[in-house]
Automatic annotation (TrEMBL):
Residues 61-96 form the EF-hand domain. Residues 75-102 are annotated as: Disordered. This is EF-hand domain-containing protein. It comes from the Bacteria. One of its GO terms (molecular function) is calcium ion binding. It comes from Sulfuriferula plumbiphila.
Length: 102
């Protein structure tokens, strides 16, 4: 199979997983409870490409997360996102619009 075709299929799958993960965050209010592990797992598998259990700035950027969103999500300021920090980022909404920050 042509690499371009495979790459496009992977991007489509990634977009679906990311969309589903972000929809979880969009459903709640700006003070929603953190997403459950089962809700975060698809997003972690999408973002954590080296499977080390955390999301680096490079991994987040590759999926379109801005540096500002990453910085805000990194609650303990260790330079990586844990599954819980990613879950919190997924459920946090922008106050003025109610839309997900990412």
């Amino acid at each position: 199979m042509n690499y371009c075709v495979v790459n496009l299929q992977n991007k489509a799958i990634q977009a679906c997983v990311l969309g589903a993960a972000l929809a979880v965050g969009a459903i709640g209010t700006s003070h929603a409870a953190p997403a459950s592990k089962s809700e975060v797992a698809p997003a972690m598998s999408l973002f954590d490409t080296n499977h080390d259990g955390s999301v680096s700035p490079k991994e987040a950027s590759a999926q379109g997360m801005t540096a500002q969103v990453f910085k805000e999500a990194d609650a303990n300021h260790d330079g990586k996102l844990s599954p819980q920090e990613l879950a919190n980022a997924m459920t946090t909404s922008a106050p003025s619009t109610g839309t997900p920050k990412y």
